[in-house]
């Protein structure tokens, strides 16, 4: 019964995101025929730049919202996260006002210099959605999260098509992304404000209480933030690498291949991950064995779904992309096939990485991401030394990431076994 309960919650999140992504895939061929590969390359560089500046946010205190047992303290965590988010992005805006030119040139993102203000704007919308969705996860309100994700998915390409009919440019794609990210935030905030405790205790968090939770969850700031930041850099690094070594058209091809192929896996792994995180947070001080059982059931489910989703991509990626998106995007299909190993491994192994936060093993997770980032640096120098073509770089990157995701899974399982063993000894 518990397993069916878990599956129903995952299905609730999956159903809305799948509907949204069906709409995206149905309209994306129109988008790729309005916008060129160079314009899509600008969107890819913008997305990578957001990841580079992703340290400007909540310092990951929002991740503590679902696991804090005291609801009043969880409410204080929401307010603290919003304060940190707005303050850090305000500082980023000031920084970019003065040094956007040299800084973005250093990142090979010169095309964003005149739109530098879109960077903190995009980060703020992402951060606000994350904070208030964590509160809904705490309340196990998967239905509201599902609705907002559906709205986000549907709106992105609608905005892109609408703007494209007026003016086709990379800036139009960027604006569409920002607007779609912000969709659903109002719904989540309204739900948050409707909570009885929030209405009663709205302005009662003291400086002392803020200090207490800052110290209590300091590991999220000191370990989770650099870990997740290194993870974001790892995701962004291939875009920066390809932008540095090759022309904007190749960046656009890779950007489309990378973004489109991640969608199916992200839909499923994100839904599974959110449910697993929320449910495991409730079980961490009790039945750890059930967490382990859930993780294994998740793994078998994701292995099967991953093969259904990604095996056709491995076998016929070039043909699929040229047919769906147009002949101009044929090379993107080649890149998509090469990304299979990283995509498949990320989908099946990443959800269980929440174990590091649930049991507050952030330092171990940080070391893993340091290793992941150093691996990307090594790939960069190998590419230059061997004068590799884009296909060679992408294949090496894909296989390396797959092996690291597998290592991450093994470490998470080891943490669970140690927790179970320590619990048995305590008894």
| Largest pleated sheet | none
Mean pLDDT: 85
Shape: globular
- Helical content stands at over 70%
Verbal overview:
The protein is mainly α and 427 residues long. The chain has one domain (2-426). It has helices at residues 2-34, 37-52, 71-106, 118-138, 142-166, 170-182, 185-194, 196-200, 207-216, 218-245, 248-283, 288-325, 330-338, 340-349, 355-358, 362-386, 390-426. Helix 16 (362-386) packs antiparallel against helix 17. The longest helix is centred in the last third of the chain and has 38 residues, at 288-325. It is globular, with a radius of gyration of 21 Å.
What is the secondary structure topology, with strand pairs?
Elements: H1 2-34, H2 37-52, H3 71-106, H4 118-138, H5 142-166, H6 170-182, H7 185-194, H8 196-200, H9 207-216, H10 218-245, H11 248-283, H12 288-325, H13 330-338, H14 340-349, H15 355-358, H16 362-386, H17 390-426
Helix pairs in contact: 1-5, 1-11, 2-6, 2-10, 2-11, 3-4, 4-6, 4-7, 5-6, 10-16, 11-12, 11-13, 11-14, 12-13, 12-14, 12-17, 14-17, 16-17
